[in-house]
From TrEMBL:
EC number(s) stated in the UniProt entry for this protein: 6.3.5.5
UniProt-annotated binding residues for L-glutamine: S53, G246, G248, L277, Q280, N318, G320, F321
Protein name: Carbamoyl phosphate synthase small chain
Pfam families in UniProt: CPSase_sm_chain (PF00988), GATase (PF00117)
UniProt pathway annotation: Pyrimidine metabolism; UMP biosynthesis via de novo pathway; (S)-dihydroorotate from bicarbonate: step 1/3; Amino-acid biosynthesis; L-arginine biosynthesis; carbamoyl phosphate from bicarbonate: step 1/1
Entry's Gene Ontology molecular function annotations: carbamoyl-phosphate synthase (glutamine-hydrolyzing) activity
CDD domains per UniProt: GATase1_CPSase
Length: 388
């Protein structure tokens, strides 16, 4: 069935069940396979496309006007493109924004990423909800020649994200120091000009804005590759360890990360803070389990309840796996829960400053309700020093 194609289709999205969406290709030409998700954020398409947690996924944007503010060098969340491709309702218009340095289509082409416009994204989103993150193939051919059988077969051939360790693909090759701060810090939070705490951030696919938030909260951040051992981390004499977000299945990356986390927890009293994949792997290290969700959470308006204060935060989310709160052992407290579906959104050790959240307190894009978590980490490191 041809969807919304007002001129000759130059791109085709094939779902593994054989459903086809035709539209207008932009960005790179060629073909790619991935898991398909939808993101409901109204802003921040550039940050979303460069969030390393999207490796292996194509993003459907439910907000129809994508591309209208162009792209710029400052808003990348990582140096390389990460999401496999994008699906949008309207073909992008010329950008209108003083910060725009490039058009979305040229930026995608330069980065080898395929996009399709003119798609009925509401129908597609319903399919994603019903089927549960389908496997898809996306092709862009300016001649409009598609081998549909081969496309559907390619979608069916995609192995899926379960069991896939993608952190090794997107992590940094070598360790590096990070000292850039956020350019803005919300009211009510203090921005530290001089770093007070040495933090090792383990990079499973870290977003730059997380590192900026840590720096702004007073951390002197050293970033280490995903496969860093406990000994390599402790060689930096950190005051705290941060576990980053990242793509793929937490159980797969956990094969090497979980033993490292357990060793840090077992041999030190260091504060530990984790976000998203880091949250999931901390839960695994503490004895909990993770599950694949139906279609995940991807957006910038997800309400989360802090179970300890009763306060609700509006959060940015991007995850397809979740921690099963029922599997958390004694001594691990569920601290946050999604008000959309009741899924787990945060944990902490009862007696130690070891905690993590499923959502993205650094936003980028999204609301700034949850910055307090970075300050909490800094406060835990300060308290440990005072106690020593
Ligand atoms: N943003 C993230 O860190 C995502 C974590 C994990 N890859 C998931 O999909 O659930």
């Amino acid at each position: 069935m041809v969807q919304n194609a007002t001129s000759k289709p130059t791109a085709c999205l094939a779902l593994a069940d054989g459903t086809l969406f035709y539209g207008h290709g932009f960005g790179a030409t060629g073909q790619t396979v991935a898991e398909l998700c939808f993101n409901t954020a109204m802003t921040g398409y550039q940050e979303i496309m460069t969030d390393p947690s999207y490796a292996g996924q194509i993003v459907t944007f439910t907000f129809p006007h994508i591309g209208n503010v162009g792209v710029n060098p400052e808003d990348d969340e990582t140096a390389d493109p990460v999401a496999e491709g994008m699906v949008v309702k309207w073909d992008p218009t010329l950008p209108s924004n003083w910060r725009a340095a490039e058009e979305l289509k040229d930026w995608l082409a330069r980065r080898g990423r395929i996009a399709i416009g003119g798609v009925d994204t509401r129908r597609l989103t319903r399919a994603i909800r019903q089927q549960g993150a389908p496997h898809v193939a996306l092709a862009h051919d300016p001649e409009g020649k598609f081998d549909i059988e081969a496309l559907v077969a390619a979608a069916r051939g995609f192995a899926g994200l379960e069991g896939m360790d993608l952190a090794k693909k997107v992590t940094c090759a070598q360790s590096y120091r990070w000292d850039e701060m956020r350019w803005a810090w919300p009211d009510g939070y203090s921005r530290q000009e001089a770093p007070a705490h040495k933090v090792v951030a383990v990079d499973y696919g870290a977003k730059r804005n997380i590192l900026r938030c840590l720096a702004s909260a007073g951390c002197d951040v050293t970033v280490l590759p995903a496969t860093a051992t406990a000994a390599e981390i402790l060689a930096h004499s950190p005051d705290g360890v941060f576990l980053s977000n990242g793509p793929g299945d937490p159980a797969a990356t956990g094969e090497y990360a979980v033993p490292m986390i357990r060793e840090i927890l077992g041999t030190t009293d260091l504060p530990v803070f984790g976000i998203c994949l880091g949250h999931q792997m901390l839960a695994l290290a503490l004895g909990g389990q993770t599950v694949k969700m139906n279609h995940g959470h991807h957006g910038a308006n997800h309400p989360v309840k802090d179970l300890e204060t009763g306060k609700v935060e509006i959060t940015s989310m991007n995850h397809g796996f979740a921690v099963d709160a029922q599997t958390l052992p004694d001594g691990v407290v569920e601290t946050h829960r999604s008000l959309f579906d009741g899924s787990n959104c945060g944990i902490r050790m009862a007696e130690r400053p070891v905690y993590s959240v499923q959502y993205h307190p650094e936003a980028s894009p999204g609301p700034q309700d949850s910055f307090y978590l970075f300050e909490r980490f800094a406060a835990a490191m300060a308290a440990r020093k005072t106690a020593a």
